[in-house]
């Protein structure tokens, strides 16, 4: 068998999900070409039913590459934060920041479709099976099987954007001992564009407005998640109602799914001519909806760095250093929230109540937290 001819590209991006697509389109807007690889067929992205919480800052980035799914996005105008069976609450309102919304809830498939719409089909190799990756000081060589043929692609920079890593010694993992049960429910009365973050001893419960429904992220210990997944619809609604309280009623639960929760942090974002972004770089707990927005900022800042400074080692080192505050700050914020709120300690419950009350009564403190949720480290100081 003859060896496959070597194809040369400047930037090869593994992973054509929203983060990889954002990077590709941001680079293209600046005149830099790149090639996308993905192991999945394109219809797989369109079939994904998950909901994503996007900050207003994410909307600002996506609008610059003409990929904001305006018609499919449900705005979040207020966020109500409280704890079960405890005093204190904080209300964050878009009007305090003169924004049309604090954030938006979008189905994964709708965001993927908006990002794929301007994509040149020649820039994506879908259903590509990567066989081997070899790196050296000048770039990377990727061997793969595509459309039944062996291909070899040589690139100056290899970007990993393929999602949550498996077992990898370069990734530190902290298991939260929690699973997220995901579904949609219909609220009565309507949600009025309000999101809820309700802290319980089992873990945070998030309700995100999506169309006329709420997308529910129901965090539970694994054994309780097993039990909740096995409930019939009426019993599930009763369990959800018991965690949330009586401020509204829920009906018509959709299909449930679940996934385990852990904090995964890659030790270094850059190694030679390879760089990791999005969930390949860090996977956060879903509390406060920071992880995906952090991944989009990874893609955007990497594109800005490469377009302004080139593809050399110094520019990659600059990128890694520039992302340190945002990614470590986001990881620390979500990690501490989970650890402080996922328990039933009376002293901690009292302290949490004081903290929530303090945020509500002190606009400067509330704005500090809110702006970093909206824009990340770009809002610093």
How is this structure best described in words?
- With 381 residues, this protein is α+β, with helices and mostly antiparallel strands.
- The chain has a domain at 6-51 and 109-169 and 264-329: FAD/NAD(P)-binding domain (3-Layer(bba) Sandwich), CATH 3.50.50.60.
- 34% of the residues lie in helices and 34% in strands.
- It has eleven helices and 20 strands.
- The chain has helices at 18-29, 42-46, 56-63, 108-116, 222-230, 233-244, 291-309, 313-322, 324-341, 346-361, 363-375; strands spanning 6-14, 35-38, 51-55, 74-76, 78-83, 89-93, 103-107, 124-126, 129-136, 139-146, 149-160, 171-188, 194-200, 203-210, 213-220, 249-251, 257-266, 270-271, 274-276, 282-283.
- The strands form three sheets. Strands 5, 6, 12, 13, 14, 15, 16, 17 and 20 form a nine-stranded mixed sheet that branches. Strands 1, 2, 8, 9, 10, 11, 18 and 19 form an eight-stranded mixed sheet that branches.
- A hairpin with a 2-residue loop joins strand 9 and strand 10 (139-146).
- Helix 1 packs parallel to helix 4 and helix 1 (18-29) packs parallel to helix 7 (291-309).
- The protein is globular, with a radius of gyration of 22 Å.
- It starts with 5 loop residues before the first strand and ends in a 6-residue tail after the last helix.
- The model has no long low-confidence stretch (mean pLDDT 92).
